[in-house]
């Protein structure tokens, strides 16, 4: 693999920015499609764009579709299914009065990614990287768990489980990309994205067809606004996967915590909501963790 230097960080920042836009778009679709329908949009309408990305990469590189080895399929299926499971757990959390607690524990994902990556992929985490992961994650949890927040075991378990599923998904996708062993990490990442979205689109479409066909019909009727959400979702995933191809999942998901800073900036400068001292301290911890992570690389 060629020297990719800081590309993984650039890819991650682009992915986090695109995901922020996608999340905002999906929130608008929730009103008409419901939470499950708006979530499915990212897969169903993202898949065609993933195919366009794949075709573009193949034409640019002058390469054909890869032939995945048998070991590829357990990795990609695990990545796709655990991402769906993580999303389902988040949906359950949205209906929970302790959602703030759940969200805080979901953001322990980088710590769990580091553990899963070490166990299943042999991804090495240096002491400096481990410190960066813990510092940045602590900053996010500190911002979320404000004084007076109600704590209960259900919320804690729900959040940790969602974080674990997101972590398993990141490791699954990275494992799939790596076992392809292609000369071009760009083709490996783009092919894996297309396959993953195909699996997710098929499964969720079948689920909605059997359980709630009205939602599936509503999604198809709302194709115009859904196209943009699908595009931004596919664009974000494309850059997530490119980052996974050249850096450990733990590094990528830790740097991805800058999403919290993006959200805080929008809250402060767009909605004119003041930043509390607790939030400011959490931001300092996140920035310190990210700086340490970049230094460790």
Model description:
- The chain is an all-alpha fold and 297 residues long.
- The protein has one domain.
- It is built from 13 helices and no strands.
- The relative contact order is 0.21.
- The model has no long low-confidence stretch (mean pLDDT 88).
List keywords for this structure.
globular; 82% helix; 13 helices; 297 residues; mainly alpha
Layout of secondary structure:
Blueprint: H1 7-44, H2 46-61, H3 72-94, H4 99-106, H5 109-121, H6 127-144, H7 153-180, H8 185-211, H9 213-221, H10 223-246, H11 249-255, H12 258-269, H13 277-296
Helix pairs in contact: 1-9, 1-10, 1-12, 2-8, 2-10, 3-7, 3-8, 4-6, 4-7, 5-6, 5-7, 5-11, 6-13, 7-8, 8-9, 8-10
State the helical fraction: over 70%
Task: Report the structural category.
Answer: mainly alpha
Strand content: under 5%
Q: Write the element-wise H/E pattern from the N-terminal end onward.
A: HHHHHHHHHHHHH
What is the total number of structural domains? 1
Major pleated sheet: none
Q: Roughly how many Å is the radius of gyration?
A: 19 Å
Number of strands: 0
Distance between the termini: 17 Å
Mean pLDDT: 88
Weakly predicted, low-confidence segments = none
Based on CA inertia axes, which overall geometry fits? globular
- Total helices: the number is 13
């Amino acid at each position: 693999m060629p020297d990719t230097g800081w590309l993984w960080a650039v890819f991650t920042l682009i992915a986090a920015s695109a995901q922020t836009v996608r999340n905002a778009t999906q929130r608008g679709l929730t009103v008409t499609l419901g939470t499950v329908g708006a979530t499915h949009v990212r897969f169903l309408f993202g898949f065609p764009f993933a195919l366009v990305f794949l075709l573009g990469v193949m034409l640019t590189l002058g390469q054909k579709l890869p032939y995945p080895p048998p070991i590829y399929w357990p990795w990609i299926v695990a990545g796709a299914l655990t991402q769906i499971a993580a999303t389902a757990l988040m949906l359950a959390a949205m209906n929970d009065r302790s959602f703030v607690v759940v969200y805080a524990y979901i953001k322990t994902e980088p710590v769990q990614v580091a553990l899963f990556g070490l166990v299943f992929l042999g991804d090495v985490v240096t002491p400096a990287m481990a410190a960066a992961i813990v510092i940045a994650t602590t900053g996010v949890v500190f911002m979320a768990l404000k004084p007076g927040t109600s704590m209960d075991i259900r919320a804690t378990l729900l959040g940790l489980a969602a974080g674990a599923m997101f972590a398993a998904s990141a490791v699954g996708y990275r494992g799939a990309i790596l076992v392809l062993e292609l000369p071009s990490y760009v083709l490996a990442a783009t092919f894996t994205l297309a396959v993953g979205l195909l699996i997710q689109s098929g499964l969720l479409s079948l689920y909605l067809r059997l359980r709630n066909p009205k939602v599936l019909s509503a999604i198809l009727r709302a194709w115009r606004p859904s196209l943009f959400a699908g595009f931004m979702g596919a664009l974000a995933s494309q850059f997530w996967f490119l980052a996974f191809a050249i850096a450990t999942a733990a590094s990528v998901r830790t740097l991805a915590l800058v999403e919290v800073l993006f959200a805080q900036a929008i809250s402060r400068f767009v909605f004119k909501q003041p930043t509390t001292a607790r939030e400011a301290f959490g931001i300092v911890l996140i920035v310190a963790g990210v700086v340490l992570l970049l230094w460790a690389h």
